[in-house]
Design brief:
The chain is mainly α. The chain has 16 helices and 2 strands. It has a two-stranded antiparallel sheet with strand order 1-2. Its EC number is 1.14.99.29.
């Protein structure tokens, strides 16, 4: 078991603005993996930070926990017009991910928010909650990825028809999101290229989510379109930040070149920070023994169901993440010297062990992206 003192040390690393942003991200995703009221409290304390990127990920992690105890702080962030649009948007999306019926009226209140991205996010969250209610409160079917998505995937699996639905801007945004996540789950080059076309669609929120999904998919065919979107100066800069953090631990040369260029020279802080976090993950994973890197694929996609011929290893032998873990990785360094977490027990399921140092367990956003979402 993780002690209160250990959780406090991780939390203090998260809220300490003197810590490098990369270390704070690792602390955040360690808390996300642990879950529970103490983790929620520490994550909630960091919303007064000046990094919009960090606050965006705070809201994301609270949503992925699907713990109703996070609802009050997320409602406060959504209501706070001093917060950046990308932060308020993510708070609305997180409320939809938690799925508590009592937030429906709050979300409806913001369906006409003057910030278009916030309004569209809340419209999507309302549709998701209504969709869940139509199913009698039953959870969405589990797909191959571990993330809790803002819309369930469409049942259609024909890539051509899904592409047409994705790019049809006359369709309801919820239906286009369903096509988006169905394309992601289908996978392959044709699906990746269809998704990449969505980076030219009109809605900034839609483009932001397409970048996230392409980061989860991690297909090289989409890299040119992602790099081009990242480079577009007229693009709302937060739209291009979702994919870099989710390119995963083994990006190709083109990805690395784009990440390094924007880390060094992009005029927008949110883009520089996003690319720096992605490079930090790459550097960390490159230093790990090759035998341990396969855990990343489990972060991106749900592990296959064991068969009699493929018996699961002993607990702790392989770091398969449970929902809520998303591949928290070993720390690069300890933020509290001498206080090492040799075995963090994941709150989402027995047998899921997270190795790491206090304040340093790295992880990315659900599914190759948070490893997700980073």
């Amino acid at each position: 078991m993780v002690t209160e003192q250990e959780v406090e040390a991780i939390g203090r690393s998260l809220v300490d603005p003197q810590q490098p942003l990369q270390a704070r991200f690792r602390a955040l995703f360690t808390l996300r993996g642990l879950g529970g009221p103490a983790a929620i409290a520490w994550i909630s304390r960091a919303f007064n930070d000046d990094s919009a990127l960090l606050k965006h990920e705070l809201a994301y992690c609270l949503g992925q926990l699907q713990d109703p105890r996070a609802v009050p702080v997320l409602v406060d962030v959504l209501r706070d017009t001093r917060q950046e649009p990308m932060v308020r948007h993510e708070a609305g999306e997180a409320l939809g991910a938690i799925g508590s019926p009592e937030v429906l009226e709050v979300l409806k209140e913001f369906e006409a928010d003057p910030v278009v991205e916030v309004a569209e996010t809340c419209q999507l969250a309302v549709r998701r909650l209504e969709w869940l209610q139509q199913r009698g409160g039953a959870p969405a079917p589990k797909g191959p990825y571990l993330s809790v998505d803002p819309a369930p995937p469409a049942e259609e699996r024909n890539v051509g028809r899904l592409r047409a639905a994705l790019l049809d801007e006359a369709r309801p945004l919820f239906d286009r999101y369903r096509a988006m996540f169905a394309l992601r789950d289908t996978g392959g080059e044709e699906a990746a290229l269809a998704l990449a076309e969505g980076l030219r669609c009109g809605s900034a929120l839609f483009r932001h989510e397409v970048g996230y999904v392409l980061g989860q998919l991690q297909h090289e065919a989409a890299v040119p379109a992602l790099a081009a979107a990242l480079a577009r100066r007229r693009e709302p800069r937060w739209c291009g930040t979702s994919a870099p953090r989710r390119w995963g631990p083994s990006p190709g040369p083109a990805c690395l070149a784009a990440l390094r260029a924007h880390t060094a020279g992009d005029p927008e802080r949110v883009v520089r920070e996003s690319c720096a976090v992605a490079l930090d993950l790459y550097a960390h994973e490159s230093a790990r023994p090759s035998s341990t890197r396969t855990a990343w694929s489990a972060c991106a996609r749900r592990p296959p169901t064991p068969t009699p011929a493929s018996r699961p290893p002993a607990p702790g032998a392989v770091r398969w993440p449970r929902p809520g873990c998303f591949g928290l990785l070993s720390a690069q360094r300890s933020q509290a010297p001498g206080a090492r977490l040799r075995s963090l027990q994941c709150s989402r399921g027995a047998g899921c062990r997270l190795g790491g140092h206090l304040g340093g367990g790295a992880g990315l956003r659900g599914g190759g992206s948070a490893a997700q979402s980073l």
